[in-house]
Amino acid sequence: MADFLQDEEGEARPQMHPATVLIREILVLNEVMEYIMRRQMDLNDTDFQALQNLMTNHTMSPGELAQSLHLTAAATTTVIDRLVRKGHVRRDPHPTDRRRWLVSPSEESIRKTMAKLMPMILEVDTKVRNYDDAGQDAIVDFLESIVAYMNERAQTLEREDAAPEPPQQGETTSRPEESGGDHAWSP
Predict the structure, then answer these.
(1) How many CB atoms lie within 10 A of CB 83?
(2) Which of 2, 23, 121, 164 gives the lowest tally of CB atoms within 10 Å of its CB?
(3) Is the dihedral of CA 160, 144, 36, 44 positive or negative?
(4) pLDDT for the residue 7
(5) How far apart are CA 113 and CA 69, in angstroms?
């Protein structure tokens, strides 16, 4: 349970555990790293997110990529076209369905990305391995919990985003089919 401190206005605010503060700092630093990599790779945010999805999943159909990015098929085609032009991804025919295409990150893009990230990844891996087995188990347990909490929260926010907000008291809807009422302008 969090300890509480009084802020300048006399409000009780939770005092976060140093580990919680460090997790927030990691999240912020991840955004900084993504910004730097986007700039160096000459990519906008959406194109970078698409490339990240492809590097994680290796190969995706354009429809799968569209779903993961929450984009329309047309917008995803534009993203793929830009990434192909810049040499970050390639389109290959589907092995069993000649009407479909698969999109994959290019070997060059993977190599360049990993060259930027591997020094940091190896340092983190070395640090974790310097702990004894019990320490490593505690770190893994802690990080698995964070991943689970973040996934759970993301799913909750997605569900909230998908659910329509009910009208406020006294508010009417603008379409007859929503309000159920007859209007002079309806057929």
Answers:
(1) 25
(2) 164
(3) negative
(4) 67
(5) 20
* pLDDT tens for each residue of 16-64: 889 999 999 999 999 999 999 999 999 999 999 999 999 999 999 999 9
Q: Please state whether beta strands 89-93 and 101-105 pair in parallel, antiparallel, or not at all (unpaired).
A: antiparallel
Q: What's the DSSP call for residue 72? A: -
Per-residue CA distances from 75 to 26, 153, 173 (Å): 31, 27, 30
Helix or strand holding residue 176 (H, E): helix 176-179
Per the rule left: phi > 0, alpha: psi between -120 and 50, beta: everything else, 92 is beta
Per domain, the residue ranges of the chain are 14-157
Q: Where are the beta strands (DSSP E) in the chain?
A: 3-6, 12-15, 89-93, 101-105
CATH fold of the domain at 14-157: Arc Repressor Mutant, subunit A (1.10.10)
* Per-residue pLDDT tens over the stretch 110-150: 999 999 999 999 999 999 999 999 999 999 999 999 999 99
Half-sphere exposure in the Cβ direction for 47 (13 Å, CA): 21
| Euclidean distance between CA atoms 53 and 68, whole angstroms | 8
Helix (H, G, I), strand (E, B) or coil at 156: helix
